[in-house]
Design goal:
Shape: elongated
Helix content: 10-25%
Order of helices and strands: HHHEEEEEHEEEEEEE
Strand content: 25-35%
CATH class of the largest domain: Mainly Beta
Structural class: alpha+beta
CATH architecture of the largest domain: Ribbon
CATH topology of the largest domain: Umud Fragment, subunit A
Radius of gyration: 20 Å
Distance between the termini: 40 Å
Number of domains: 2
């Protein structure tokens, strides 16, 4: 579908697509207004225009229901190399997990050719520490992670949230006594053993990015 879109309308579509990919639901009109620095009335007018053009679909009487038409391909949709940078992850001792609203734009960093989409459940964390150095993950690297549904497989490199406020990147194993073992990849660090109810798995590492 080829449409004559204004820059503001294109920005609204991109923001809706990004929010649905990273959060699983659409932004509100007020959230769109705050993100784009315009009034809620302006956003509402643009959204109505996009619905009339067939670029957006909205379910009546349902909040956060804006969806981009499946026939519409946005300019950068085939690469989707802009990923949410949601915080930092410890590769030493666990650190407090703090969510940010920054982004890591892989296309801007490395200018690669257009390639396979990274998908809607993927996010990036910046590594702090060297406890995963033997897995070729160094301090300052970016790890690309996929959100995890359920329990990881033994040997998966996981983003583990310990006691609700401490996050760490480690290999996952389950001990015979039922405890979870978070294994570093550096002999200078001891494994972390925790009871299952104390740990949540936020994702599995699927790649690493290093900028020289």
């Amino acid at each position: 579908m080829a449409l004559n879109l204004t820059p503001k309308q294109l920005a609204i579509l991109n923001r809706i697509r990004e929010t649905r990919l990273t959060r699983g639901y659409s932004p509100t009109m007020q959230e769109l207004a705050d993100e784009l620095g315009v009034s809620k009335v302006t956003v509402f007018e643009h959204v109505e225009a996009l619905i009339k053009k067939g670029a957006l679909i909205r379910q009546k009487n349902k909040a956060r229901s804006l969806e981009i038409s499946p026939d519409l391909e946005l300019p950068d949709e085939s690469s989707n190399l802009r990923l949410p940078l949601v915080g930092s992850i410890a590769a030493g001792s666990p650190i407090e997990a703090i969510e940010t609203r920054e982004h890591l734009d892989l296309e801007d960093m490395f200018a690669p050719p257009r390639g396979q989409s990274v998908g809607g459940t993927t996010f990036v964390l910046k590594v702090r520490g060297d406890s995963m150095i033997d897995a070729h993950i160094a301090d300052g690297d970016f790890v690309v992670c996929r959100k995890l549904e359920g329990v990881p497989r033994p040997g998966d490199m996981v983003v583990a949230l310990v006691d609700d406020d401490e996050a760490t990147l480690k290999f996952y194993f389950k001990e015979r006594d039922g405890r979870v073992k978070l294994q570093p990849a550096n002999e200078r660090y001891e494994p972390i053993w925790v009871d299952p109810h104390r740990v949540q798995f936020q994702g599995v590492c699927v790649g690493v990015i290093r900028q020289y």
